[in-house]
Amino acid sequence: MTVLIRPAALDDLDLICRLRLQRATWLAARGSDQWSTEASGLSIDYFSRVVCRALTAGETWIAEVDGEPAGTITVNDRADRELWSSAELANSLIVHYLIVDLRFAGYGVGQRLLAHAAALARTYERDWVRLDAWTSNDDLHTYYRRAGFRFVRVAAPDSPSPSCALFERPIKSWLLDGDLLGARPSAFPMTPLARYPVVLPVFG
């Protein structure tokens, strides 16, 4: 099996929204309030508008396993103001909306999407991949720790945002682990972040 990571297009918006709804339903069935509007999560309509802007800006990618859409990730250099400092933002790229289709859970799709974010960060000479996770989702925190991320802090504990658990991983750790497979895309403008395919093997 291989996973192809390709730039997402506007035609992928419905797919990404379906993945979000699928995962939100799965989380709710397990007692998590992640992405629920009751817990101040983005409504699907608002989520759709945000992702549409990211698609237009070239910041979103789709993972395909043997031609089937298997997950998505958005990567840029922005975050909510209360989360990361200006200095932290200046030397990192930020992961948003990492979602894997449940049909492909356990195939390492999420890990490969995160490695794609790291490859982008290396291209732009950033030192870190950073992200915020749903504050109360301990299972998600464990997932990111297993993916090599370090818990940094809970940002703005009094913030109404439900996603304030901050994690980071240095690019050099991916290089040491060999997860970037030596891929270094050719130069392209900072906006959009990238428009190139990366083919990576899926293990497990």
| Radius of gyration (Å) | 16 Å
Q: In one word, what is the shape?
A: globular
Measure the end-to-end span. Answer: 10 Å
- Unreliable residue runs: 181-204
Return the structural class.
Answer: alpha+beta
Q: What's the total count of β strands?
A: 8
Helical fraction equals: 25-40%
Largest sheet: 8 strands, mixed
Strand content: 25-35%
**Could you spell the SSE succession in H and E letters?**
EHHEEHEHEHEEHE
Structure description:
The chain has 204 residues and is an alpha+beta fold. The protein has helices at 13-29, 44-56, 86-90, 109-123, 138-146, 171-177; strands at 2-7, 60-65, 68-76, 92-100, 128-133, 150-154, 165-170, 198-201. Strands 6-7-5-4-3-2-1-8 form an eight-stranded mixed beta sheet. The protein starts with a strand and ends with a strand. It is globular.
